């Protein structure tokens, strides 16, 4: 009983330490925003220990290790719907003239939940044209915001209750990715041709 009480006190202290970061005056929060933040922390306090999946156990072997670092440094907690059925990615090139080119698509391979260990070419979780249209639209918006050069757009594919598929963008990285280099090497070696609309 004493150990359980000590654990509860430690978690309460961690949540209290984290809550300090949302000082109402410092962030100019309205009453409604402050109440929302407080309710969010309350929800996290109750649900996080039961639902959190630690992806990097070499850094955070236990929940206590993770939450202590999270409380001290801050961080991001990503939610993942159970209906996720794929993780397609698109490599783009945003030309200085404004044209957006799809250079390759791939599907991430996961060894452990949330730890990608490789890719398959092309992506296979959604129709290629739908992914092409979404990626080109995002690339155009990125260009409009001043981004040029290589960009990787990460998506997650969700299965809807009616059986349809939906793609959500989860990340945009302005970088030349290793997956694009691998694709271009094997495309060159096999004298292949890539149709961006067909994958």
Walkthrough of the structure:
The protein has five helices and six strands. The protein has 199 residues and is an alpha+beta fold. Helix 1 (2-19) packs antiparallel against helix 2 (31-51) and helix 1 (2-19) runs parallel beside helix 3. The model has no long low-confidence stretch (mean pLDDT 82). The longest helix has 21 residues, at 31-51. The chain folds into two domains: 2-73, no CATH class; 84-189, D-amino Acid Aminotransferase, Chain A, domain 1. Helices cover 40% and strands 25% of the residues. It is globular and about 55 Å long. The chain has helices at residues 2-19, 31-51, 63-73, 128-144, 178-189, and strands spanning 84-86, 88-94, 100-112, 115-120, 149-159, 165-173. The termini are far apart.
CATH topology of the largest domain: D-amino Acid Aminotransferase, Chain A, domain 1
Radius of gyration: 21 Å
- What count of structural domains? 2
C-alpha geometry: globular
Overall average pLDDT: 82
Instruction: Give the SSE string.
Output: HHHEEEEHEEH
Helix content: 25-40%
Number of continuous helical runs: 5
In terms of per-residue confidence, which ranges show pLDDT below 50 for 5 or more consecutive residues? none
Count of extended strands:
6
CATH homologous superfamily of the largest domain, by name?
A: ATP-grasp fold, B domain
Largest sheet: 6 strands, antiparallel
Termini, distance in Å? 59 Å
The fraction of residues in strands falls at 15-25%
- CATH uppermost class of the largest domain: Alpha Beta
Oligomer: single chain
CATH architectural type of the largest domain: 2-Layer Sandwich
Report the structural category: alpha+beta
